[in-house]
Amino acid sequence: MPAMPHALPEAFPHFENAVRRLREEDAHFEKMASQYDALSDAIRRAHAKRASAQDARVRTMHRQRLWLLDEIAERLREDQATR
User: Fold this and answer.
1) Distance of CA 55 to the CA centre of its chain
2) Helical residues (DSSP H) of 1-83, grouped into ranges
3) Are 23 and 35 in contact (CB under 8 A)?
C-alpha cells in the first residue's frame, strides 16, 4: 500500500492556495494545521526510532492526525462553498 502524503499541500493538492490562505487568515484553521504538522513530525520520529505501528502511543497519534485531516478537509470544503 502506498504511503499517504502527510504534508497538507500534498494531502490536498487542489486546495494548496486555500490551505496557505486559511493558515494566514483563520486562526482556528492555523491551529488545526499546526497540530497536524506536529503530529506528522512526531509520528515520523517515532517510526525513525523503529517504534511499531502497533505501539499504543503511535496508534493514538495516527488516529488524532486522521481526525485533524477530516476536520481540515471539512473546513476546506466550507471555504470552497463560500467562494
Assistant:
1) 20
2) 8-11, 16-25, 27-48, 56-81
3) no
CB 29 within 8 A of CB 23: yes
For cell 486522521, name the residue.
66
Q: What is the CA radius of gyration of the chain?
A: 14
> Which grid coordinates belong to 45?
520520529
Mention every residue, 6+ apart, whose C-beta is less than 8 A from residue 40: 6, 7, 65
Q: What is the pTM of this model?
A: 0.85
Angle between helices 56-81 and 27-48 (to 10 degrees): 150
Tell me the per-residue pLDDT of 6-59, one tens digit each, with 9 for 90 and over: 788 888 999 999 999 999 999 999 999 999 999 999 988 888 887 666 688 889
